[in-house]
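hiii so um. not sure if this is the right channel but i have a protein structure encoded as C-alpha cells and i wanna go backwards to a sequence. like what aa goes where. can anyone help
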C-alpha cells in the first residue's frame, strides 16, 4: 500500500506511506491489522481507549545501536535529549542501552534520576536555568553544565563557591551556522537566543580559568532540530575544534569533550533523514584526530519514529465544499501539525476499504488551527474507526497540554509481544487539584 504525494509542507498533502517509514517504527500490517512490534494496535486502543500514544521499545534500541555503531571510531557518549520524550519507561529503555541524558530543567533532572541515569552521565543544557536549578545540579554532581550566557556563568560561579563544590562547565557556543529547518527549531545562528556568541567565549573562558571551583571541560553546540544536511555539523565542529585549540593554548583549560548537540532528522514523509553512516562519514574524520570525547544529544532521532498516536474517528462532516474527519486527538495531544505545520503520516488501524477521501483531519479543540492534517488523501474512514498518526514518539506527549481541560492521553510501551500502560490517562480531577475558588475556600 503506497500513496504518492506532490505536496509535503504545512501538514498538507497526500499520504506517502513507504516501506522505510514503516520499518523504522517497527510497524507491519498482518492482513488488515496494523501491528507495532508484536502487538496489534487495535488491541491496545480497545483496552486502553483513545487517544493513546504507543512506543516501540525495540525500534528505539535499533536507532540507538545504529548511531552508536556508526560512531564507533571515536570515543563518544550519546546523551538522549530528554525533552523529546521524558516518560520514565522511555528513559529507562535508553538508560539500559548505556545512554547518558541531556536535560534542560530541574524537572527533567528529577525524571532522569528517577529513571536510573547516574548523575555524572547527565548533561544540563538550556538558555534560562534558574539559580535554584543550577544549585540543584551542582549538588547532584551532574556530568557537566552547558552555560549559555556570561551572566549564567557568573551565577554558576557564585553557587559553586557557596556550595564549595567543583563544577565541570561546558560553554555552549553559538557558532553562527545556517541550517535548513523550520525557523522555530533553528538554534545555531547569531541573533537567536541560544548559546554564547563566539566573540564572548574568550571572556567566559577567562572567567572560568580564574575561578577556583570551575573547570572548562566541554565546548558544546546545538545547531537546530530536524537537520538532514551534514554540512552545518561539519562547519560547527570545525568552529568548536579551532576554538578549543585556542583556549587550551591560552589558559590551558582541561577540555575533554566536544558536545555536538542533537538535531538528526527523521523521515516524516519522503524528505531526507539523517542516515547514521552518512552522518558519521561526515563528522568522524574531523573529530577522530582531535582526541576529544564526542557527546551527542539526539532526541527525535532515537524516539521519533518509534511512536504513534492512535486516535478514533468521531464524526465525518462536509462543509464549504470540504470533507472533514473529526477525530478524538487534538492539538493539545499533538501540537506539531498546528505549531510547525509539520507533516505526520496517518494510516488506518484496520484496512477496511480501498476508497480514499481528501479531507482535513481535525481535532475537538476549539481552534481553527486544531488539525492533524490538512487537505490529505486518507482512507475513507467512518466514525468508530481508528487511525495511527506516525512519527509521534518525539515532541508528541512531551508537548501535550490540557487546553480545553482535556486530560492528556495514556502512553503504552510495546516490547516484542509484551505491552504495558507506561503512563495512565490523566483524569479530569487531576487537572483541577490544588485550585482555590476563593481566598479561604477549598478546591
Ligand atoms: N540538545 C539541545 C540543547 C536541544 O535544544 C535540543 C532540542 C536537542 C538537543 C535535541 O534535538 P533533536 O535531536 O530532538 O532534534 N519541538 C520541536 C523540536 C524542538 C527541539 C528543541 N531542542 C519539534 O517538535 O520539532
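sure thing!! here u go:
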Amino acid at each position: 500500500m503506497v500513496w504518492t504525494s506532490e505536496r509535503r509542507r504545512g501538514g498538507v498533502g497526500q499520504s506517502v506511506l513507504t516501506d522505510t517509514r514503516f520499518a523504522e517504527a517497527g510497524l507491519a500490517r498482518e492482513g488488515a491489522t496494523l501491528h507495532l512490534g508484536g502487538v496489534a494496535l487495535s488491541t491496545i486502543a480497545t483496552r486502553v481507549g483513545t487517544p493513546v500514544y504507543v512506543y516501540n521499545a525495540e525500534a528505539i534500541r535499533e536507532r540507538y545501536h545504529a548511531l552508536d555503531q556508526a560512531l564507533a571510531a571515536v570515543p563518544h557518549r550519546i546523551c538522549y535529549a530528554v525533552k523529546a520524550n521524558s516518560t520514565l519507561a522511555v528513559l529507562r529503555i535508553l538508560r539500559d542501552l548505556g545512554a547518558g541524558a541531556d536535560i534542560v530543567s530541574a524537572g527533567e533532572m528529577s525524571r532522569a534520576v528517577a529513571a536510573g541515569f547516574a548523575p555524572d552521565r547527565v548533561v544540563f543544557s538550556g538558555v534560562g536555568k534558574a539559580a535554584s536549578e543550577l544549585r540543584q545540579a551542582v549538588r547532584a554532581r551532574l556530568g557537566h553544565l552547558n552555560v549559555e550566557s556570561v551572566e549564567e556563568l557568573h551565577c554558576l560561579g557564585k553557587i559553586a563557591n557557596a556550595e564549595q563544590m567543583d563544577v565541570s562547565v561546558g560553554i555552549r557556543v553559538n557558532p553562527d551556522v545556517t541550517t535548513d529547518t523550520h525557523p522555530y527549531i533553528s538554534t545555531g545562528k547569531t541573533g537567536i537566543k541560544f548559546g554564547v556568541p563566539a566573540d564572548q567565549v574568550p571572556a567566559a573562558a577567562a572567567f572560568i580559568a580564574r575561578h577556583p571551583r570551575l573547570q572548562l571541560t566541554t565546548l558544546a553546540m546545538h545547531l537546530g532540530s530536524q537537520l538532514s544536511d551534514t554540512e552545518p555539523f561539519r562547519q560547527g565542529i570545525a568552529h568548536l575544534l579551532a576554538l578549543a585549540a585556542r583556549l587550551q593554548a591560552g589558559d590551558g583549560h582541561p577540555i575533554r569533550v566536544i558536545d555536538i548537540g542533537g538535531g538528526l532528522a527523521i523521515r516524516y514523509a519522503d524528505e531526507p533523514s539523517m542516515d547514521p553512516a552518512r552522518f558519521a562519514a561526515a563528522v568522524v574524520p574531523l573529530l577522530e584526530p582531535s582526541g576529544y570525547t564526542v557527546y551527542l544529544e539526539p532526541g527525535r532521532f532515537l524516539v521519533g519514529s518509534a511512536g504513534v498516536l492512535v486516535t478514533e474517528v468521531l464524526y465525518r462532516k462536509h462543509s464549504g465544499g470540504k470533507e472533514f474527519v473529526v477525530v478524538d486527538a487534538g492539538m493539545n495531544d499533538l501540537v506539531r501539525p498546528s505549531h510547525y505545520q509539520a507533516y505526520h503520516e496517518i494510516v488506518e488501524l484496520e484496512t477496511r476499504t480501498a476508497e480514499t477521501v481528501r479531507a482535513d483531519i481535525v481535532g475537538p479543540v476549539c481552534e481553527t488551527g486544531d488539525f492533524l492534517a490538512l487537505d490529505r488523501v486518507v482512507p475513507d474512514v467512518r466514525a468508530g474507526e481508528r487511525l495511527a498518526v506516525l512519527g509521534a514518539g518525539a515532541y508528541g506527549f512531551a508537548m501535550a497540554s490540557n487546553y480545553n481541560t482535556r486530560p492528556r492521553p495514556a502512553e503504552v510501551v510495546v516490547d516484542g509481544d509484551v505491552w504495558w500502560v507506561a503512563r495512565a490517562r490523566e483524569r479530569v480531577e487531576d487537572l483541577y487539584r490544588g485550585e482555590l475558588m476563593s481566598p479561604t475556600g477549598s478546591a
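oh and The chain has two domains: 2-49+307-392+394-430, 58-303.
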